Amino acid sequence: MTFGQRLRSLRLARGLTQKECGKLFQLSESAIGMYERDQREPSLELVRRIADYFEVTIDYILGRDHYISEGRARYTAADHWTDEERELADAFIQTIRHRKKNGTTKMKANE
Question: What domain of life is recorded for the organism (predicted)?
Answer without folding.
Answer: Bacteria
